Amino acid sequence: MPWTYFLLIIGSCTIIHGLLYPIESETRQIRSLDGLWQFRLDDAGVGEVERWFAMSHLPSPTMPMPVPSSYNDVTQNVSIYRYTGMVWYEKDFYIHKIAPRWVLRFQAARYETHVWVNGQSAVNHTGGHLPFEIDIIPFIQTNSTYSKVHVVVAVNSTLTYSTLPPGSANLFYNYGGIDRSVILYSTSTMYIEDISIDTQSIDYDDQHKPISAVLTYSIKTAGTDQSVNNALQLLIQLFDADGVVVANSTDFQSLLSINKPNLWEPCGMNHTHSCTEPSYLYTLQVTLYNGTDIIDIYRLAHVGIRTIRLTDSKFLVNERPFYFHGVNAHEDSDIRGKGFDHVILNKHFNLYKWLHGNSFRTSHYPYADEFYSMADRYGLAIIGESPAAGQNNVACFSDVTLEHHKQVITEMINRDKNHPSILMWSLANEPLSSSKEAGVYYSALFNFTRPIAARRPVTFVTYGTADTDQCVQFADVICINRYFGWYINPGRLDQITDALSQDITNYRKTYPTKPIIVSEYGTETLPGLHSDPPVMFTEEYQKDFSSIHHKVFDTFSSLLHPDTGYLIGELPWNMYEFAQVQSINSVAEINWKGLFTRQRQPKAAAFIIKERYEQLELIATEIK
């Protein structure tokens, strides 16, 4: 039986609320606090005991540190480069024209964060990669024109068995600091706190052209002025790309009907658009009134009309087969480390367009908000992944970790649920899924996630085998990482075809109702290193390795074999070279598996992938 991911009846939905991305509007102001902050290490762990947060300035030695960035690569100090632990930041600024609420928002910091405003504890947050915020008005002295604000932030990058990612044998370089933007924004006393919107249904004519669509939405307001709460009114307006209102409502929770809708479509398929062209987005404008007075206006500019449906062999978007073909990546670049950068973001998507990639997994953590907005715009499909990478010890499956994992999953879905580009959630990458402890842990986590999954399938990524894995049984889609010819049978290109074919076949026999994605495959490749015959680490080896995998994928492809195929995607690892822990197996502390260098220049295999993805776009798909 096909499993359909459409909206449930509103009364039976679990409504969850998230942190709306800060925007400017008629009622909201935004101010960036990015730039140079003062910074220092706390290697002795004495900052809180000595009350650094209450001092007018952090005690010396301090230095300027750019925000956002990882602090590790910015200086020439090897102690800072290798440092893991508590660090401190501070910044002074003034607020002019005091608003009823000024909200201090951190887009992310790694990993345990404490924030003080004017010497007072304001907010704590556990976990990296996701935003947190606090109204700072209660912590500041105000007069009619301005207020001075002193913000102190302590961030601890220490990883343990109960953190995500865990500290157990994690080979990825453990960057630390405030690695995404810090934003100050204002709202009224009563304000729009959350918006949820999704597609309930789409009706088509005989030619599969959309006739109508029904969207469901829910609006949550919040604030301290309860005297006006009963007088609050809403105006909901859905604008098309030309700025024309196509639907409206005044209810806090209801349905919107659209005639002849333009659908959001994932790019890179024969029946959709090129990945160089934008997909179609609507804008939802929510206006909050007290009587006739406008209190708040928020615009959600990335509303995409699309449905997802999963069968035992296909992933359907708008009732048409979708085949994931892209490249996974890390948020990682020279000097910035994990720090968000608009230049790097734009280059990333330009390379995706060049490569004809149509999808990626946010490996192995939620990316910056801006990645999802760009993916919405161009129709790139996302598998949104939690930061649970490297749970390779049974100590990682404790009740403490499980509760933290639930917190992270909730925050991730709350933040990202309205992005049409997100087609599936991934709960983890390569846990020790053969263990009994992992089976118990992930049974609980999948059961927790499904009611809040915003109508998406839920998966995780395994390195295990079909006969030993204890967790694949819970996943809607099987995602397998496979390195035949690299970690397994290294150097033996001739053994890849049989080993990979048998592995995919075994998974299908064990789980005949679950489609499969090969979510990682790749080799480390030193740019400019050549050999004939091909040997490991050469560009020739990476080229042949890729081509051999493609032939195997074609054997099982649901795109090439719509009646018998069940492979619904292929995602090489990795888009770029990235930093990892120094060892005798790590030349220059770099993982060299990139199709592109860390400086975003292509290796020979990038052209192999580009040619393949161009060919995949030409394959016609059927309507189911």
Chart the SSEs and their pairings:
Layout: E1 3-5, E2 30-32, E3 35-41, E4 63-67, H1 78-81, E5 86-96, E6 101-106, E7 112-117, E8 120-126, E9 132-135, E10 146-156, E11 182-187, E12 190-204, E13 210-223, E14 232-239, E15 245-249, E16 253-259, E17 282-290, E18 293-303, E19 308-310, E20 315-317, E21 320-321, E22 324-325, H2 342-355, E23 359-361, H3 369-378, E24 381-385, H4 399-416, E25 422-429, H5 436-449, E26 458-462, E27 478-481, H6 496-510, E28 516-520, H7 539-556, E29 567-570, E30 578-579, E31 590-591, H8 604-616
Parallel strand pairs: 22-29, 23-24, 24-25, 25-26, 26-27, 27-28, 28-29
Antiparallel strand pairs: 1-19, 2-11, 3-4, 3-5, 5-10, 6-9, 6-11, 7-8, 7-10, 12-13, 13-16, 14-15, 14-17, 17-18, 19-20, 20-21, 30-31
Question: Can you characterise this structure?
Answer:
A hairpin with a 4-residue loop joins strand 19 and strand 20. With 624 residues, the chain is α+β, with helices and mostly antiparallel strands. The strands form 7 sheets. Strands 22-29-28-27-26-25-24-23 form an 8-stranded parallel beta sheet. A 6-stranded antiparallel beta sheet has the order 4-3-5-10-7-8, with no helix packed on it. Helix content is 17%, strand content 30%.
